[in-house]
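Exercise 7. Given the encoded structure of a 209-residue chain, write a plausible sequence.
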């Protein structure tokens, strides 16, 4: 059994999608970041950084923070969605790190300035808007002729997809990135993706793209 501490954000959905894909038993503990629940002492005892998601593996007693590390841990433990062959494995890990180090953080900044606070900083809007376009172009090029980001369906796809699901928030028309759009729509049809998207609360229809 996994205890999942999460909210309805791209980083939270990465983990719930993987848990659904693995078919694991897990208990959801909603952490409402709009009310500051992530700063409560009982949550900080699990994740000192005060961010979702986090998990506790009841089997091992391990408490783990950072979505990328959680994906890695669960895939490693259950032998799925992370190749054993070294070269293929490193391709998946490289794209997972790409998401963690660039795609997620830059899109998050775009959300802040373009979606939540438009008009507050023309410089920031231009800077992060340009970086979003660049990153989408990188992903679109990688998906040329590929069904998934790094070979077979993997934690790299699960890490990136929830951020692309917020394309409207960062001002992206997926029609401008046809390979990303086709990949996004393929994953959108997966039952585990659909279930994981609605954790911890049902937020309605997944954006079509």
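Solution.
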């Amino acid at each position: 059994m996994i205890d999942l501490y999460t909210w309805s954000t791209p980083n939270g959905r990465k983990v719930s999608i993987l848990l659904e894909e693995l078919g694991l038993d897990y208990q959801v503990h909603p952490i409402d970041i709009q009310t500051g629940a992530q700063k409560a002492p009982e949550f900080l005892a699990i994740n000192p950084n005060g961010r979702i998601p986090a998990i506790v593996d009841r089997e091992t007693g391990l408490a783990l923070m950072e979505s990328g590390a959680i994906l890695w841990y669960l895939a490693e433990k259950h032998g799925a969605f992370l190749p054993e062959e070294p070269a293929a494995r490193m391709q998946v890990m490289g794209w997972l790190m790409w998401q963690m180090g660039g795609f997620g953080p830059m899109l998050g900044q775009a959300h802040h300035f373009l979606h939540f606070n438009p008009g507050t900083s023309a410089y920031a809007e231009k800077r992060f808007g340009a970086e979003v376009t660049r990153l989408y172009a990188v992903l679109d090029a990688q998906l040329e002729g590929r069904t998934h980001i790094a070979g077979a369906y993997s934690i790299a796809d699960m890490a990136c997809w929830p951020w692309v699901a917020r394309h409207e928030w960062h001002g992206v028309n997926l029609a401008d990135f046809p390979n990303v759009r086709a990949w996004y729509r393929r994953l959108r049809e997966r039952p585990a993706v659909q279930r994981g998207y609605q954790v911890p609360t049902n937020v309605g229809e997944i954006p079509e793209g």
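Remark. The chain has two domains: 2-80, 86-190. Students should compare their own answers with the one above.
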